[in-house]
Target: histidine kinase
Amino acid sequence: MVWQFSLGVVPLFAATLVATAVAIAVFRKRDAPGGRALGVIAVAAGWWSLLAGVELFRTDLFTSVVLTKATYFGIAVVPVAWVVFVLAYTGRRAWLSRSRLVLLGVVPVITMLAAITNEPYGIHSLFWQDLGFMTDGSGTAGSSQYGPLFWLHAAYSYSLLAVGSYLLVELVVNADLLYRAQAGVLLMAVVAPWSANALYLANVIQTPYDPTILGIVLSCLLLLMTVYRHRFLEIVPAARQLARTELIKTLDDPVVVIDDERHVVDLNPAAVDVFAAERMDVIGRGLSAVSPKLADWLDSDRAEQTISYEVDNVDRYYDIQVTPLSQKAVADSGLLLALRDVTARQHNRQQVSVLNRLLRHNLSNTVTTIHGNAEYAAERARDDEVRERLAVIEDNAAAMMDKQEKLDRVLRTFERDSYTCKSLDTLLKAVVDDVRTAYPDAKLTVDMPETTMSFDGQERLRIALEELLTNAIEHDPSDAPAVRVTATVEDRQATIVVTDSGPGIPAYELEPITNGQETQLSHGSGVGLWLVSWIAHSLQGSLDIETGDDGTAITLTIMSEE
Model:
């Protein structure tokens, strides 16, 4: 065995030292996602560069062959360790089952066995067809013509490197700044050696040793910098990715992810139950094929937020929340559809609706009976005091019937009032005309500019305006109540002010409105103002009341639909 010194060993031994430093640094963080795989890469790179450096010291064929073959114990491992590292680092460790790891290791084992048993000093030429020497000023190293098993190893290695690089590119595009910095350095670390390797295999670069090793020097330096500068292996995206995945998997609410062409790309177990299909049978299919009802809802104006599905022979109701999915470099990447189970709420609404209708019907019948009997008794009563008391009962029953009728009208309006009035001034003038007809002694003044402002809920607004005007007239004790209506329109907002000169509104009447509810200690004597306030809020507006001994000004504000 003949040894000779060459300057070419300097970068190779430097690569060994740097790889050793990286291996030590990574060993301290080996429990982090991808830590062990990265340690394997560092050790394999150190082994590769060390043997390549030793190879430059010798000049005999036997030592060259032994060292060259031995380097493949490191070379063959690097691509597999790389893809294992990236999968774990990006939160895809669940993919790394034992059977898949065994499959990943098949080609590296074939590569090692093929290199060891190849000629010279072997039994075949499937890996190298000719292994000889190549010499330049930097030293002497083995040169070769490659066989089919080598190209199998090369194709497999580049495929794994491409998969890992793609996952890192995806992370760079979508991740936060810290993770993008880490992933960017990792990409540079893999591009440097393997671009050099590709140029070497294509004979673009001709050197006495594989320049991939020099790229590894740079890669190891980049990894070492990342460990200490970007908190590499301390904060990794795997935890965030796993948290998101587990959160969606364990949600009781169905979650469906579709791409920009409305193909189902993912769904959680709850969604599988709703669609009554196997998960893998759903993924990749169009949403219209998986759930026509949900696809039709997406195509609609989405005014109705609730849809129903039959799950385990039971009708269940879901509110749908749509969240656009976007990437920093790609627009319209898809949608996340979250279906919130509101079956209990829907059933409660139905039960309350039935109970409400039942109570209103029974109350109406009861009050009608009271009114009729009071009227009958008053006509036949001989005592004046009895007649007076029966008249009070009759008046109160009539008032209750009026309130019941008004409430029924409002509730029916809320159920069907969805069309739009195109002229606010026309509606207001029509309401004023109706009130003038009902109260001919009242003096109503209207000040409103012509407008074509449109808004939702015409019937609700009509009820609110009628309530404000009739209340102002009925609570004014004068013979000719004066009520002024002033309306202004600015941008998308209409403001209607109803002013009267009556005695003002008592505090106990205002308290239920300001509190939003009636309490046991403060019952409003009427539902009028509370009803107007309710309607105002349903129209995305507001109600403001200013009252005193000299009168009341009530301001109703509504928003245009435009």
Observations:
- The mean pLDDT is 76.
- The CA atoms of residues 29 and 35 lie 6 Å apart.
- The chain has 20 helices and 14 strands.
